[in-house]
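Worked Example 4.2. Consider the chain below.
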Amino acid sequence: MLLVVSRPKVLVVDDEENIRFLVGSALTVHELEVTAIDNGADALHHVRTESVDALVLDINLPDIDGFEVVRRLRASGWMGPVLFLSARGTTEDRVRGLTMGGDDYVTKPFALEELVARVQVALRRTGKLERRELQVGDVVLDDDAHEVRVAGEPVHLTPTEYKLLRLLLSNVGRVVTRAQILDSVWEYHFDGESAIVETFISQLRRKVDNGEEELIRTVRGVGYSVREPR
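Applying the procedure from the previous section yields the following structure tokens:
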């Protein structure tokens, strides 16, 4: 079970369709509700008319740049966390972004898992994301301590195994496809084959399945799922 369930709303604003898709997919599989927009004017309208808990914002937009979007939002009273995305990584740009009201600044290309983690940190800081642990049966993943326990005993996982287990436990009852796993665990620039997913699933099973009932189930031809034990 998820010990605390919440679905904060995140607005992703970027004029590159592939970035919107990848970031949106990664945030969605981590239990966040995502809306994706490709320009500054529509982003301003959306924040002012809809509930938005956090903003992932490209600086180089086709109409209004990200800095100006944040300036207008702050002037209108919206104080949610803002994470800037940019290909511009100079100290001057970073300082400008943070002093204009941004909470974080990530340069392109970036690691999807790191971006998700930064969004989660910002949401937790504002009280919009409360979940700290994920549990299914005897398996507990403690995100704050960054540890996994099976039947109360700590289990050592590699960083990749930990990310894979976290992704699966975050989607209890749903099928996570091999493509989603590659995007979220190995990041969008990973040029790998689905066979590597099968290898890590096998390693993970040996560490977390207690032998009584299979935790990680294969959905043939699609991906993998985790379900609550009967």
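The two ends are 12 Å apart (CA to CA). The first helix runs from residue 17 to 29. Compare this with Example 4.1 before moving on.
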